[in-house]
């Protein structure tokens, strides 16, 4: 952290660093990104749309264990490297339903991971990613609570990967190549569940809003803290605060704490307080969370359109962490006011099945 520009400017009164406006931080002011801001991309139909709804080819070889009711499953007895295209489509469908799917003891190499992931779409590149096809994810030993004093991006908080893009990623995959025996877990939250956890009045309010997703804060932090040069200029994008998932057709909350700075339709203080509420909402959602303990050879594949995630900060005293991440472009987020939430669909299906059973005089219900 000592290499942050702020540490060159110490207050004579407090003895602590004085933060600089980015225009006067030479690392930020002098950087000229080599690439242009991206334009809207029309992506192919999601591979999950082609899958057998029962996922028979995949579940014939893999044993599925759900980790929490709302989110997260493990697939056992299967090597990703052996899945055929039909099984990969079914895996994508499972990921859109469960949010994140985990594997242990995988034999994937980086080359094979890249090849496999191209099945799901066009490979995306993180703004700090130099390799064309994958990005290396390491564990940060920095005190994220203190870093936040001197560089603006809340890097340790819940986010959907690069949600500021016009076409944010649909799927991401992270495969761990090095990992200590303890520390560096990742937590995911279900955005289907977080939407359902709102009151009806709040749902109506948020349904009509656009969240401001920005890469500006990350841009400054990449330059000053990471010492790397972002490929692209910073971008602000207004995405629906509630989005409709293109495969499940379910509503999912589209607010995250890593990249969302406010709501386009609201006045500043209204926006600030709503975002503050969402900070509480996300951080108190134990019933819509799953936490994964990594090992070397573990893999997670998640859907950024219906989940957010964060690495649980660790000290990494027992060793380093190195993962290989691949992502693919998703569609431009949209909101269909006629789409339903996961809970609404469950209730509707439950009511329909009861009507059907009662209609057949197979059972009768006695009101309690
Ligand atoms: Fe991430």
TrEMBL record:
Feature: compositional bias, Polar residues: 355-368
Molecular-function annotations in GO: 2-oxoglutarate-dependent dioxygenase activity; metal ion binding
Cofactor requirement: Fe(2+)
Pfam families: TauD
SUPFAM superfamilies associated with the record: Clavaminate synthase-like
GO CC terms, sorted: cytoplasm
Region ranges (Disordered): 335-368
Biased composition (Basic and acidic residues): 339-348
Keywords (A to Z) from UniProt: Dioxygenase, Iron, Metal-binding, Oxidoreductase
Family according to the record: Belongs to the TfdA dioxygenase family.
UniProt name for this protein: TauD/TfdA-like domain-containing protein
Species in which this protein is naturally found: Zasmidium cellare ATCC 36951
């Amino acid at each position: 952290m000592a290499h942050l520009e702020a540490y060159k400017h110490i207050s004579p009164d407090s003895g602590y660093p004085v933060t600089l406006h980015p225009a006067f931080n030479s690392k930020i002011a002098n950087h000229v990104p080599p690439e242009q801001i991206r334009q809207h991309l029309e992506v192919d139909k999601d591979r999950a749309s082609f899958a057998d709804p029962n996922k028979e080819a995949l579940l014939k070889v893999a044993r599925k264990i759900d980790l929490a009711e709302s989110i997260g499953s493990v697939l056992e007895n299967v090597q990703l490297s052996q899945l055929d295209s039909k099984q990969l489509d079914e895996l994508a469908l499972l990921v859109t339903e469960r949010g994140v799917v985990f594997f242990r003891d995988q034999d994937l190499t980086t080359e094979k991971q890249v090849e496999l992931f191209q099945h799901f779409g066009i490979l995306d590149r993180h703004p700090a990613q130099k390799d064309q096809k994958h990005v290396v994810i390491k564990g940060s030993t920095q005190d994220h609570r203190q870093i936040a004093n001197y560089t603006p991006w809340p890097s340790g908080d819940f986010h959907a990967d690069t949600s500021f893009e016009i076409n944010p990623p649909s799927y991401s995959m992270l495969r761990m190549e090095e990992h200590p025996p303890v520390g560096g877990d990742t937590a995911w939250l279900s955005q289907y569940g977080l939407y359902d956890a709102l009151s009806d009045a709040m749902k109506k309010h948020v349904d009509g809003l656009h969240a401001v997703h920005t890469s500006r804060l990350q841009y400054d932090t990449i330059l000053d803290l990471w010492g790397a040069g972002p490929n692209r200029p910073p971008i602000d994008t207004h995405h629906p605060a509630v989005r409709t998932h293109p495969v499940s057709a379910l509503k999912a909350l589209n607010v995250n704490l890593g990249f969302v700075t406010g709501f386009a339709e609201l006045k500043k203080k209204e926006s600030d307080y709503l975002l503050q509420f969402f900070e509480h909402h996300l951080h108190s959602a134990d019933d819509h969370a799953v936490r994964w303990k990594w090992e070397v050879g573990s893999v997670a594949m998640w859907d950024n359109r219906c989940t957010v995630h964060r690495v649980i900060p660790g000290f990494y005293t027992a060793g380093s962490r190195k993962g290989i991440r691949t992502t693919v472009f998703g569609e431009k987020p949209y909101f269909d006011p006629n789409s339903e939430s996961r809970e609404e669909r469950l209730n509707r299906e439950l009511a329909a099945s009861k009507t059907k059973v009662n209609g057949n005089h197979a059972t009768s219900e006695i009101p309690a």
